[in-house]
Write a structure and sequence with these properties.
Blueprint lengths: L13 E4 L5 E8 L2 E8 L5 H4 L1 H4 L8 E7 L1 E6 L4 E4 L4 E4 L3 E6 L4 E5 L15
Antiparallel strand pairs: 1-2, 2-3, 3-9, 4-7, 4-9, 5-6, 5-8
């Protein structure tokens, strides 16, 4: 394994667009696993813009994220909820919905749950 690995999200290994042009996932593959940068545009909501791609009732990915900018509301299937914003780290288990709060894009870095995120149902990444 090389002593230093460098990747840039602006030249990602894979780009996965969300429905209706409401954002995208830039994915870089590393020796330690995939890392993703998601840009969720204002008006983005998982149930509207990723559910049609994933084919599940709620997001079934675990996430460990750092919020670069913008705000995101997260609601678990059991009703537990939180809102995250710039500088926050958050972890969330499968079984949730989320949406952008406000009028600026929410940008996240996730090093746990984006490997199979927004992959069409029945496909493999």
């Amino acid at each position: 394994m090389p002593a230093i690995t460098r990747k840039n999200f602006d030249s990602a290994d894979e780009v996965r667009p969300f429905e209706d042009g409401k954002g995208k996932l830039d994915l870089v593959n590393t020796d330690r696993g995939p890392v993703g940068r998601a840009v969720f545009e204002p008006g983005w909501q998982w149930t509207k813009h990723v559910k049609p791609i994933a084919g599940t009732d709620s997001c079934q990915a675990s996430h460990a994220c750092y919020v670069v900018g913008g705000r995101l509301k997260i609601v678990m299937d059991d009703g537990t909820e939180d809102e995250v914003g710039p500088g926050d780290y958050f972890a969330v288990e499968p079984g949730h919905d989320a949406w952008v709060v406000g009028d600026e894009p929410c940008v996240l870095i996730d090093w746990v749950g984006f490997g199979d995120y927004a992959v069409p149902a029945g496909s493999t990444s």
